# Entry
Amino acid sequence: MKEDKDQIDDLIVARLSGNSSAGEDEQLFQWISASEENKRYYLEQREIWFSSGYAMESFDEVRGFEDFIYRSHIGEEAPETVTFREKVMKVFWRGISAAAVVAVCVFTGYKVGELRMNDNFAEIVVEAPVGSRTSVTLPDSTRVWLNAGSTLAYSQGFGIDRRVVRLDGEGYFEVAHDKNKPFKVESKDMCVTVLGTRFNLRNFADDGEVVVTLSEGSVAIDNLIAKNSRRQTLVPGQRAVVDKRNGRMKIEETDASNAHQWIYGYLFFDEELLPDIAKRLERSYNISIVIANEELMYTRFYGNFIRENQSVEDVISNIASTGNMKYKIEGNQITLY
# Structure
């Protein structure tokens, strides 16, 4: 380890006791992310801390710090046959003969401390404002592109124990492979679980459909709308479309590359409902669109446009020419009828 071991122990204790500053947390997380060895050391020290019971309400910081440091370094000269946990248990539970009591106390102290630790992690939120797009690289090297009007949220402790993000909107994911920690994208209506893959997920709160399109690898889909629905798996070149009104999901073949053309500035509509197209245009061009006729709500359109080179009027005009639809522009509002 490049950093002084005592300094790292100080940072760990400060974090676990809830007395760390934002700067100390950032320094610790950077150190943990630097190598698997660092991550393993942190998890071992965290387990000692939680198992010792100092994560409970009545916490004496000075006593806790001294005892933690002592417990972390006991038995350094012990034979290799003695495990890390055995060293801790030998000292901490000396004099307690009831094995059941030991097991219950260790488990309870650890689980309570672990829950409080996870609760203390701050949430990081990345947002792509209306009219723009953005991208972010997560601590595990996963890359995520966010379409206009989308947000991605994840824990400050992302990647330490698990990899879970929450998406509201549309995102294209290039997930770093980690067989021990599946990557999960959670949204209100669907949960997507992967190991390492490339896929596009669109689920804006006001859209009528959820769409997952797989480009590479495999994804497992849990439909959260339909009760008792079975987990479905996609292979490359497939997409799953879920109707939010009834929870029905269909899996179909598609040209997966079209689904994430938006990251290159294209607007690609693949037989989408007009209301969802209207919302995408609103988010992309920061305008308001009103659909005046009920029958248009169930009409689907296909089209491909270049956002930077074509105005919203160009897009609307092309869509209108493919069906029985007219439009009217008044200031920042477009009415379709």
In short: Residues 53-62, 74-112 have pLDDT under 50 and may be disordered.
